[in-house]
Amino acid sequence: MIQKTIEFLERQKKLLAVLIALLTILTLLFTLLPSDNLFESSVWKFDKLGHTLLFGTWTFLLGLYILIATKKSLPLFALFLIGAFFGISIEILQEVLPVNRAADPYDALADMIGCLIAVISLKFITRKSD
Fold it and tell me: CA–CA separation, 119 vs 74, rounded Å?
């Protein structure tokens, strides 16, 4: 099953790249828009879970793309660092930009947890696909 999914994604590299780009844009919009511009919802009660899922998914898709595009073993630690850097950078931008947002170290931690889950999942997938 994993191998068939990877084979499908190999034929759809552009789709995967578009998904990564769209998720990057959505992530930036959700995290850098002023919070009063975001719709009110009970979803925001699960903010840390959202961070974990958002950055985990972003890191996972990026890892899949690298795996498929290079056909080499994944640099998992570097992939984790890229995802973590993305999350930490957004928290810094929230603090320094005039967007009525404040940095939250727990958001950055949730981002890193998502990246770690993604890297572990990718490690599992690459082992199963060999």
Answer: 9
Neighbours of 125 (CB within 10 A): 19
Between the alpha carbon of residue 38 and those of residues 72, 100, 105, 118, 126, the distances in Å are 40, 12, 21, 27, 38
Q: Which of 114, 108, 106 is nearest to 53 (CA)?
A: 114
- Say which amino acid occupies 11: R
Instruction: Cite the DSSP H helix spans in the chain.
Output: 2-11, 13-32, 47-70, 76-96, 105-129
pLDDT at 60: 97
Quick one: average pLDDT of 6-24? 92
